[in-house]
Amino acid sequence: MSDPFEGLLRSTLTDIAEEAPTVRDSLTRAERRARSRRRNTVAAGAAGILAVLVIGAPFAYASRGEDTVISPQPGTSVPQPDRSEPVPAPPAVASPVPISPEDPTRPDSAVPAPPGVASPVPAAPGTPSPVPAPPGVASPVPADPADPADPADPSMPASPVPAPPDTRSDDPAGPPPSPVRR
Amino acid sequence: MDEDERAVLAEFVASRAPALIRVAYLLTGDRSSAEDLFQSALSKIIPKWRSIRHADPEGYLRAVMYREQVSWWRRLRRRRESPVGVHEPVVADPAGGTDLRLALRAALWQLPPAQRTVVVLRYYEDLPEAQVAELLGCSVGTVRSRTHRAVTRLRQILPDSELLEMQR
């Protein structure tokens, strides 16, 4: 950069600066502009928040709807018990697969229930079987002879464990091992 | 802002506005744009006047003006409303150095805003490179390169650069 060119540049800039306009009452207009800037900033922020809510609300509602099934009729939305579901036995009926406290060697022997009570399906010990069996079906698991609830008694319900048809539970020699697994 | 602070601000604007308007006019090259630039910078310092009034409010206002001039948003607005008559070619005038000054003025308006700002700060405000870099928020090397490119561009635009050497 040469000095003459630099001098020309400086003098030209000074000449141009002398042509600058004179501004009056610039503070009032600047204050008005500052208020406008602040108002626009607040409005833009509020619009942004509103846009986020409008856009995000359907997504949030949809993600919530994936977890619960919404019933079209809120009054009938109470779940009804299914027919295929097991119905618990009445409180008066004894558990079909109890563990006899008097005979620890045969924990799987079932205590016959009173007549007319549904026969349980083989299940884990201690778990009441809800499926009833037809009355009069012989129990494959003989009960304890000392047990007053003798399966031979037709008034007593069948054993919960299904057995072959020719197997009777009134064998005095002793009952076969119970097929019920522990 | 209470009345006391507003009175101090009004006094500051009344005393320093002419010099700042001159700088704004050099930066923009247009009267209305210079007024708009000055008021835009002033509106930005009004909310912060309480914190900067005891420091250097004029330096703060100048820095806002310089950065506003090279900002991206202002460049968009400037593209929409280009001043008329800036890019008119200047023919040689044998009467004296007037044509050269006119040519230099026209060449200044053809510079990009960043380069013109550096030229104004370096050759009108007589600021050193380090202070220019601090005001514009860039490095000293950037200021140096912008200055070099601006002067080279002015030499290319001027019709008779050699004539200047002969006049000296």
TrEMBL record, chain A:
Residues 23-42, 66-182 are annotated as: Disordered. Residues 70-79 have a biased composition (Polar residues). It comes from the Bacteria. Keywords: Membrane, Transmembrane, Transmembrane helix. The keyword Transmembrane helix applies. Residues 102-111 have a biased composition (Low complexity). The chain crosses the membrane at residues 42-61. Residues 87-101, 112-145, 173-182 have a biased composition (Pro residues). This is Uncharacterized protein. It comes from Micromonospora tulbaghiae. The lineage of its organism: Bacteria, Bacillati, Actinomycetota, Actinomycetes, Micromonosporales.
From TrEMBL, chain B:
Residues 13-79 form the RNA polymerase sigma-70 region domain. One of its GO terms (molecular function) is DNA binding. Residues 102-154 form the RNA polymerase sigma factor 70 region 4 type domain. One of its GO terms (biological process) is DNA-templated transcription initiation. Keywords: DNA-binding, Sigma factor, Transcription, Transcription regulation. Coiled coil: none annotated. The keyword DNA damage does not apply. Belongs to the sigma-70 factor family. ECF subfamily. This is RNA polymerase sigma-70 factor, sigma-E family. It comes from Micromonospora tulbaghiae.
